[in-house]
């Protein structure tokens, strides 16, 4: 029952995290001159445009999943690597911003619901906290330097000459690298995630005590 409750309450958190992450990629690319995402209907906050059914189910069951990748054509940018870097950073940064915003919202809710002991208040608070937690985790997770992740694209844009020399070898073994990194991913990001979440919890209680 606890697993089912957690899975159900995590659905809004996953939808929020995936939607804003992919929308941020699409919005930044569109602003920099690449209209591919706009033409494919991805410049929207409608979760249905961004959620991959299999990736959504995977994250519900196993805690690891994916959204539909936002289509980007770097050749449409005026500054190939600089603009592509902005697009790559936009997704993870959106998750961090969403986490901060919902930390404030959660703090306000704590204040308004103070003294309430009903199930609805408890479930709402748990759902809001999951939105904060999942967005922080996805912020760090997407920064991992793995092919297909934003972290890898960021490094590729920052060090294009180096990646031209080793890129073929990396992509040749990208699936092996992917599974190895994902297997150890939570050990890698758990520390930084916990530090950020701890600071956001302090922000929540600060906001709750403002009124």
UniProtKB/TrEMBL annotation:
It is a multi-pass membrane protein. Residues 13-106, 125-180 form the Peptidase M50 domain. GO terms for molecular function: metal ion binding; metallopeptidase activity. It is found in: Cell membrane. Keywords: Cell membrane, Hydrolase, Membrane, Metal-binding, Metalloprotease, Protease, Transmembrane, Transmembrane helix, Zinc. One of its GO terms (biological process) is proteolysis. Its main location: membrane. GO terms for cellular component: plasma membrane. The chain crosses the membrane at residues 50-67, 87-114, 120-144, 175-197. It comes from the Bacteria. Its cofactor is Zn(2+). It holds the Pfam family Peptidase_M50. Belongs to the peptidase M50B family. This is Site-2 protease family protein.
């Amino acid at each position: 029952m606890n697993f089912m409750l957690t899975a159900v309450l995590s659905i809004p958190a996953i939808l929020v995290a995936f939607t804003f992450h992919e929308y941020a990629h699409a919005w930044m690319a569109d602003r920099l001159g690449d209209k591919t995402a706009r033409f494919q209907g991805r410049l929207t906050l409608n979760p249905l445009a961004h959620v991959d059914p299999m990736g959504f189910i995977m994250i519900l069951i196993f805690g690891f999943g994916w959204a539909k990748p936002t289509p980007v054509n770097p050749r449409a940018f005026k500054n190939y690597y600089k603009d592509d870097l902005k697009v790559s950073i936009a997704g993870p940064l959106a998750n961090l911003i969403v986490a901060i915003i919902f930390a404030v919202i959660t703090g306000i809710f704590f204040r308004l619901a103070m003294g309430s002991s009903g199930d609805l208040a408890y479930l709402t608070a748990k759902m809001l906290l999951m939105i904060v937690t999942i967005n922080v985790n996805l912020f760090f997770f997407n920064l991992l330097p793995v092919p297909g992740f934003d972290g890898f694209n960021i490094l590729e844009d920052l060090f294009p000459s180096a990646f031209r020399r080793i890129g073929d070898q990396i992509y040749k073994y990208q699936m092996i690298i992917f599974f190895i990194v994902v297997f150890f991913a939570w050990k890698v990001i758990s520390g930084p995630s916990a530090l950020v979440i701890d600071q956001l919890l302090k922000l929540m209680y600060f906001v709750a005590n403002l009124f």
